[in-house]
Design brief:
The complex is a heterodimer of chains A (308) and B (395). Chain A is α/β, with parallel strands linked by helices and 308 residues long. Chain A has helices at 3-24, 31-36, 68-71, 83-92, 106-121, 134-140, 170-177, 192-196, 236-244, 263-274, 285-289; strands at residues 28-29, 43-47, 64-65, 100-104, 128-131, 185-188, 219-220, 254-257, 279-281. In chain A, the strands form two sheets. In chain A, strands 1-5-4-2-3 form a five-stranded parallel β-sheet. A four-stranded parallel β-sheet of chain A has the order 7-6-8-9, with helices on one face. In chain B, helix 3 (55-65) packs across helix 15. The chains are: A alpha/beta (308), B mainly alpha (395).
Chain lengths: 308, 395
């Protein structure tokens, strides 16, 4: 091989890999980028879907299945997966130090966003990305799905201890509600009907809290306001504007919550990862707060729990 | 009506079904699933109509006329589906580890409620003349009485939801969820299930008379045409095709079942008039023909059942089996009563002859076999009692 052709090849390789690198920069990857990187050994795709059988009947080729109810949570106590189990999960998927991690799932990436939050709590940083638009967009574009389960060479993974700065606990939230912490902003991303206290749980879901309403001082920002019709996130500028309208501009720390903590991960992702604000997700959410004894509640609709 | 005209009409109906599926499919995304459900239902409708795949009629043929063909076709469907399901299981869940079940497969609890429901379902189908799935395909054949049976099933579902919490509180709905591969592995489960089917096949062959094939009067293309479009398909072939369709349905959509949409409508309507308690204890956690908690008017199961009725209609037109049959008052009463029993049974047992018996046994669920035993007992008992009542009435 002559030096000239070698150089030419190198230039070509760099120029074709440039857009790939560019797309990898942010917290989101596009369906097109992922499609081009399916064979890239340094990209590992995880599906976190909530409906059973969705992954098995066809997933993005090479994607590893994460079962939300058992793999990312502690199956006994209410908590995220233990450090040890999380390391096992990453190791079994063959994640290396320089692997780009892409998560996606059904239901507008709700559970994939929850996954991204857990990955970030365990210090996986900027290499954790969401597939913009999730499963919905991938399917809408008619991109290929595969039903075979991949197997990867196991790696040894060491993750740092859980990062407490990304997770709000009940006492943190109570301080805000009782006015002790006047600096932190609470964002309730449930539907307006849940926020106002008209209903306790969304239609079709089991009621898990015995009180209706929201945490005092919280502002309502239904999660769907952060996405476009096709399920992709709105642009950074639009998100900035939409949040600024309800007084969330990143100048103060933020806590997001919902009913059980997954939809709020989606908003956490928008605020923390896309806008770069300082945000904690309160995964105890309304099922913890609305059941706690003695905590102040704002119940605009005045719905009284009937015990049914 | 002459054959060519019937074939043309049938082609028109089936082409219409295909066009409708294409139209739905073109919306992309989730709609593709609905189009697939419609086509799967259509294929199932054609097969069950052409092969007369009807649980009760097949059982009655064996019990009353010692004709084994129909029951053999059910056994063939079970065997084919078992193989298909286990091929899929091996891919989706490489080892049947203790804490997991293959997604969405109909592996329900083995409970007293299951046995009660299956028994009631058996009596109901003997009374109403067919099980729920067969009433759907007979509706496609123009059998008006089926409408009453299905209306009865709707009422039965409501009664089932109303009695559910009582059964739950009496500890009758809960039971072990027994998936054979958890205990015997894939190989062992398959071997045991196929052996059980072989024993049943031997029994049926011993018990039944050999039925000679009707001599075909003519040969050549016309006779071939008639054997496809007019005469009943060989029952075992029909059974194998039902097994294959069940496998594809599980692979792409969900296990076959015909009551989920009916149950969903029943539950929604009864809830909206406050007939049901707010909570049906642990009902939605069980596997089976679950009622969908959705706002959509039609679920994929609704498309499947719609396809079944239209597929059967198309096939019945070709074979000359389509006749608008106006039922007598007595038939209406029997259909309604049988339908109510079937609806209550299918709700309580979390499915019917298709959802629990067929899709359960194919998936290696013990619940499927339990349904088979109790439903058969109910149906045979029901047939005997009904025959006695009828002979007394006529004497």
């Amino acid at each position: 091989m002559t030096l000239k052709s070698w150089l030419g090849g190198a230039v070509l390789a760099i120029s074709t890999s440039l857009p790939v690198l560019a797309a990898e920069e942010g917290p989101l990857v596009s369906a097109d980028w992922l499609q081009q990187n399916l064979d890239n050994p340094k990209v590992r795709v995880f599906e976190v879907s909530v409906d059973p059988g969705v992954y098995e009947r066809g997933h993005i080729p090479g994607a590893v299945n994460i079962r939300w109810h058992t793999d990312l949570v502690d199956p006994v106590r209410r908590d995220i997966a233990s450090e040890e189990n999380f390391e096992k999960l990453l190791g079994a998927a063959g994640v290396d130090k320089d692997t780009t991690i892409v998560l996606y799932g059904d239901n507008n990436n709700w559970f994939a966003a929850w996954g991204a939050w857990v990955f970030n709590v365990y210090g996986q940083g900027d290499r954790v990305k969401l597939l913009d638009g999730g499963r919905k967009l991938w399917e809408a574009k008619g991109l290929p799905l595969d039903s075979s389960v991949p197997s990867y060479t196991e790696t040894k993974v060491d993750v740092p201890a859980a990062d407490k700065s990304l997770r709000a606990r009940f006492p943190d939230v109570l301080k805000v509600a009782e006015g002790e912490d006047k600096n932190t902003k609470l964002v309730d991303i449930r539907s307006p009907k849940e926020f106002s206290g008209e209903i306790v749980a969304p239609e079709g879901f089991k009621e898990l809290a015995v009180r209706a309403g929201h945490i005092p001082t919280a502002v309502n920002f239904p999660w769907a306001k952060a996405v476009n019709e096709d399920g992709t996130f709105k642009s950074k500028e639009d998100l900035q504007k939409a949040f600024a309208e309800i007084g969330i501009d990143g100048s103060q720390p933020i806590i997001t919550y919902c009913r059980i903590g997954e939809r709020s991960s989606h908003t956490w992702f928008a605020l923390a990862r896309i806008l770069g604000y300082q945000v904690k997700n309160y995964d105890g959410s309304w099922t913890e707060y609305g059941n706690s004894v003695g905590a102040p509640i704002t119940n605009l609709a005045g719905t009284v729990w009937q015990g049914k | 009506m002459i054959l060519s005209l019937r074939l043309a009409l049938s082609g028109l109906v089936l082409a219409g079904l295909a066009l409708l599926a294409l139209r739905i499919d073109s919306a992309g995304g989730q709609s593709r699933q609905l189009a697939f459900a419609l086509l799967t239902g259509g294929a199932l409708g054609v097969v069950v109509q052409r092969a007369r795949f009807c649980f009760l009629c097949n059982l009655r043929d064996l019990v009353e006329a010692r004709d084994p063909r129909g029951v053999l076709s059910i056994l063939a469907a079970l065997g084919t589906g078992l193989l298909g399901y286990f091929i899929i299981f091996g891919m989706w869940l490489p080892t049947p580890s203790a804490d997991r079940l293959p997604p969405t497969a109909h592996i329900g609890p083995v409970s007293v409620a299951l046995a009660l429901g299956a028994f009631a379902f058996g009596i109901g189908m003997a009374t109403a003349g067919s099980c729920i799935s067969a009433h759907f395909y007979r509706l496609g054949e123009g059998n008006i009485a089926s409408l009453f049976a299905l209306a009865g099933a709707f009422v039965g579902f409501v009664l089932g939801f109303m009695s559910w919490n009582r059964l739950f509180m009496a500890d009758l709905t809960d039971g072990p969820v027994i998936w054979l591969p958890h205990h015997l592995g894939y190989g062992g489960s398959l071997a045991l299930s196929l052996a059980a089917l072989a024993v049943l096949t031997a029994f049926v062959l011993r018990h039944g008379h050999a039925i000679p094939r009707p001599p075909s009067g003519s040969h050549g293309p016309v006779a071939g045409f008639r054997s496809v479009f007019v005469e009943r398909w060989p029952p075992v072939l029909g059974g194998v095709l039902v097994g294959v369709i069940g496998t594809f349905a599980y692979l792409r959509l969900a296990p076959l079942g015909v009551t989920s949409q009916l149950g969903t409508w029943a539950r929604k309507s009864a809830s909206s008039v406050h007939l049901l308690p707010d909570t049906l204890y642990s009902l939605d956690t069980f596997r089976g023909c679950a009622t969908a908690l959705t706002d959509a008017f039609l679920t994929p199961n609704g498309y499947l059942v719609g396809g079944l009725v239209f597929g059967s209609f198309g096939a019945a037109l070709a074979s000359g089996k389509f006749t608008l049959a106006i039922p007598s008052l007595r038939q209406v009463a029997r259909s309604l009563l049988g339908g109510i029993l079937m609806g209550w049974g299918a709700m309580t047992a979390l499915g019917c002859t298709v959802g629990v018996l067929l899709s359960g046994i194919q998936a290696g669920a013990l619940a499927g076999w339990v349904f088979l035993v109790f439903c058969t007992a109910g149906a045979v008992g029901g047939l005997l009692v009904l025959r006695r009542i009828e002979s007394r009435a006529s004497s």
